[in-house]
Amino acid sequence: MADPLFSPQLRSYLDGLVPPRADEMAGMEARAAETKFPIIGPASGQFCYLIARLHGARTVFEMGSGFGYSTAWFARAVRDNGGGMVHHVVWDEELSREAREHLSALGLIDAVTFHVGEAIAALKQAEGPFDLIFNDIDKEGYPDALPVIERRLRPGGVLIVDNMLWHGRVFDEEDRDVSTEGVREVTRMVSESPGWTASIVPIRDGLLVARYDG
Ligand SMILES: C[S@@+](CC[C@H](N)C(=O)[O-])C[C@H]1O[C@@H](n2cnc3c(N)ncnc32)[C@H](O)[C@@H]1O
Description:
The protein is built from eight helices and seven strands. Helix content is about 45%, strand content about 20%. It has one domain: Vaccinia Virus protein VP39 (Rossmann fold, 3-Layer(aba) Sandwich). It has a seven-stranded mixed beta sheet with strand order 3-2-1-4-5-7-6, sandwiched between helices. S-adenosylmethionine (SAM) binds next to helix 4 and strand 2. The site of S-adenosylmethionine has 19 residues, from helix 4 and strand 2.
């Protein structure tokens, strides 16, 4: 039997429950599918939107934003929470330019600040504190990002981290790749720290949702 956790059937079922998106968002999803660009996808996007709404987030810092798909979900949440700012950070100039075009077409550009550069360095320089931080950078960077995130989240702030199941590679004890080890290490750090209250939600590739009380 195929692994039920990562079955295409489960994924398309959960994606299919998400209300239809604006044409621009649907175009971003199609572009990701064609080019195999790793966006969070509809079910995780909707879940991020939901968490941001439940939390009433008005200030969001996103690490590893790609061409702006996850940013669009957070920007919608911030707008629907009464307005605020989402920080889009990617180290690739071209992706940042593409993101500006998409967010502009979606009418969300005023809620987004764009940074081109390395995301942990950008967060160190950012003027927090933030209500919510979303981390989707290269996985070997996850452990180094956590202490910076702790300094920049407001008390009671929320962290969401993508790829916490890392396509099932975290279960494979033989897998000692730096990315897999990065995911395992940050999981240990969060679970062992009394400052964090966290769960991993197995939507798509696993989202860590955590509250920080310092
Ligand atoms: C997984 S993709 C992100 C997709 C985006 N979060 C979404 O769902 O639409 C990660 C993006 O961030 C970039 N990236 C990875 N590590 C980074 C880092 N440390 N600093 C800045 N950008 C990074 C990658 O090149 C890629 O474009």
